[in-house]
Inverse folding.
């Protein structure tokens, strides 16, 4: 897969099947679009091209009011696209000026004029262009003139629940990790650098890696204790992760700490990946350290049981 950022990088002989959007999370709905694109590309000897945006349009337009959180960083999206078999990803620098582009110009000049789109694949109820005025119907009307076909992918559901980035964010905000994983069709994860903490875990027999997330927009699951898998230097370990304020020790800032089972190495400065499997319990303020340790031992047994199910 090749990542393009400038029009002069587009191959001169390209003939493509294109889809365009933010693709946050690359969830089941997005994956259905990608599957359709690759099928069409193989049938018609075309290249599959995803056009996505960085930063997120709401951020670029100042509409996030500090509430928007993203399921995937750009690097995470690109990694999923590559594993899916996409040929090219064009990353557009999303600016207020670009947002003002009429959908007709976007389709005519870029999708058709530069990417030579022969098919445009879009998701259920997708809108694009200035004031989101482009949609399935407008694409079909223009297709008759510019020689491309339009394919719309139906809404994807899991047990009657629609797969959408907004829904998945809400699930993670309310501890429903397993349900979010189901709509994603993979397990949600965060990555970050291991930094020094207060080292309280060492004194009570549960040493933790304190993780600093590099992207401030990355969605963090709701505070609590989780069963997780932890990737350290390409090796996978079981563990339990606490997200929160450590109320027993009156911590005042959010921390992400993971106790990695059967692991004793010093990994300060290393980057690790935490994959969320299941929610265990809410964060609790304990009356004593002994009471906390007793609960942590119970948590570990619960986590091990969950990870072996």
């Amino acid at each position: 897969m090749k990542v393009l950022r400038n029009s002069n990088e587009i191959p001169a002989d390209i003939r493509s099947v294109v889809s365009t959007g933010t693709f946050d999370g690359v969830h089941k709905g997005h994956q259905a679009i990608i599957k359709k694109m690759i099928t069409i590309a193989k049938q018609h000897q075309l290249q599959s091209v995803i056009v996505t945006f960085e930063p997120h349009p709401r951020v670029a337009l100042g509409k996030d009011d500090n509430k928007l959180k993203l399921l995937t960083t750009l690097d995470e999206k690109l990694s999923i696209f590559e594993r899916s078999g996409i040929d090219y990803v064009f990353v557009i620098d999303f600016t207020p000026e670009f947002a003002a582009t009429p959908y007709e110009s976007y389709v005519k000049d870029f999708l058709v004029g530069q990417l030579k789109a022969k098919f445009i694949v879009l998701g259920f109820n997708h809108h694009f262009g200035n004031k989101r005025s482009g949609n399935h119907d407008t694409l079909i009307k223009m297709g008759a003139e510019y020689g491309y076909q339009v394919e719309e992918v139906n809404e994807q559901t899991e047990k009657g629940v629609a797969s959408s980035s907004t829904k998945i964010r809400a699930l993670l905000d309310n501890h429903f990790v397993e349900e979010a994983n189901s709509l994603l069709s993979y397990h949600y994860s965060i990555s970050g650098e291991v930094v020094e903490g207060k080292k309280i875990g060492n004194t009570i027999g549960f040493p933790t890696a304190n993780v600093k997330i590099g992207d401030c927009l990355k969605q963090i699951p709701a505070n609590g204790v989780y069963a997780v898998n932890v990737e350290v230097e390409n090796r996978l370990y079981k563990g339990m992760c606490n997200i929160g304020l450590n109320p027993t020790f009156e911590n005042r800032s959010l921390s992400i700490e993971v106790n990695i089972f059967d692991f004793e190495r010093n990994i300060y400065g290393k980057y690790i990946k935490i994959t969320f499997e299941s929610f265990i319990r809410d964060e609790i303020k304990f009356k004593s350290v002994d009471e906390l340790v007793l609960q942590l031992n119970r948590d570990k047994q619960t986590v091990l049981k969950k990870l072996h199910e």
About this structure: The two ends are 36 Å apart (CA to CA). The chain has two domains: 2-155, 187-308.
